[in-house]
What we know:
Layout: H1 12-16, H2 20-29, E1 34-36, H3 39-42, E2 49-56, E3 59-66, H4 70-94, H5 102-109, E4 111-113, H6 117-132, H7 142-153, H8 161-168, E5 176-179, E6 182-185, H9 198-212, E7 218-222, E8 225-229, E9 238-243, E10 252-258, E11 261-267, E12 294-301, H10 304-316, H11 319-329, E13 332-337, E14 342-344
Antiparallel strand pairs: 1-9, 2-3, 3-7, 4-6, 5-6, 7-8, 8-11, 9-10, 11-12, 12-13, 13-14
Helix pairs in contact: 4-9, 9-10, 10-11
Amino acid sequence: MTDQSLPPTGDIQSVRRLSRRNFLRIVACAGIAAWVGNAALENLEAARVVRQSRVLMGTVVNLTLIVSDRESAAAGEVAAHACLERMAELEAVLSRFKEDSQVSILNRNGSLKNPHPALLELVRRSHQISELSFGLFDITILPLLALYQKYHAAGGGLPVETEIEAACQKIDYRKIIVNESDLAFTETGMGITLDGIAKGYIVDEGVNRLVEYGFSNVLVEAGGDLVAGGRQGFDGGWKIGIQSPRRRSERLVARFDAFDEAVATSGDYMQPFTADFAQHHILNPKTGRSSPALASATVIAPNLAIADAMATALMVMEPAKGLALVRELGLRALLVTKDMTLLQA
């Protein structure tokens, strides 16, 4: 049976009535995008900065820790290694690109016994975000995404209308049975992808490991999405910039300081299916196509899981409705339209 901690199926109005405080309580339980200014770091002694990097989740994860002295720098190296190990552990569970991951097993078999707690948590969080976004964020979008990716891998072109309609029939986040001992789809041919939330969650968990080791002034960046914990240096927060979604433009569309915040960006340029970026990997589960309004969406939130998921959702939503939702939830967003107009909330 469906886990009773989830809202009633289809009861969007009950979720819309969530207060900002309750929404943040729910989520707290829980390289083209961002530029990080390094001037403050360069002014610190080398012994006060610890850096480590590793390839994870299909990108390079970069860790920066601000430490107090050489002794804490040695401890910081240990903490950074533990952080990356925790992230690798979760990737092995949550990645659909690893054949033996729990997500891959669920997608192959249609059901999964004794799901990992992290997988259960992400399915539950994703359900909440699906309700908040009127179903436009949906982890069961995999059949549609796989259809587009099949055409793209074959050399281009787009699926025909009948194929798109058939794939959309297999999408519905409410058709996942969730309880402590089982995950299952109610219909054959369904599948999930956690691409729109898992990276954020995994980085959050890595940052939690750093905090457990006593390091709070940290920056963990993965493919342009990042968590900026504490302060970068004596002059304040971490210096963050959001780059233009078009490579022909080198300018930053925004700059700001981040204090204990997460920043995630989704964009049409990341996995385009057409040369004009009209169709790309962020697809509307209701229409089967990419929405025409935005080139990129950046969300600034208390943690990276919610920033990651909301950035994905905003790419599908009509911009005015997306900005209204962001304001309602007490988050911040920077949207760049196809004509490079900047919209903010």
